[in-house]
Write a structure and sequence with these properties.
This protein has about 160 residues and is mainly α. It has a domain of about 80 residues. About 55% of the residues lie in helices and about 0% in strands. It has six helices and no strands. It is globular, with a radius of gyration of 16 Å.
Amino acid sequence: MSVMSMFATPLPAVPVSGRAGRRVARHPSAGSPPATAMSLLKQAKQGLAEVEWEDDSPQKFARAYLCALRAAAAMLALRGRPHRGRFRPTSAWVLLSAVAPELREWATFFESFSATRAAIDAGVTRAITRRCADDLARQAAQFVRLVERAVHETHLP
């Protein structure tokens, strides 16, 4: 089954079993969250507000994916990049799994739509239905809320 053809059916339910359904682990630290993390989180939340009113399904899908990606980047800014020997380009979703194992199911979920996002950017949009875009937008919103809670809980006094 091609990536695009799987959108003839609705998206699978958000992973709620295992770690993804639980609260994000608290990593205590002093002070407020890094400005970069807060900025990315703010952009993700603003993007979700815009996604809500988007009528074009492929654009809604792409923007929702971008909001989730920004939330992942916020978590990476908060937790830092895992140490590796040689630098190789790595997706944010792979890095997120490494620095926030409690979000691994979410990272896998969103990573599975990376090719679809690239296809939309390339103009291949025929298989993106309204329901598909709405489902991804809802799940991106849930992920952004989870990351927001993690960012704030990490920096509680």
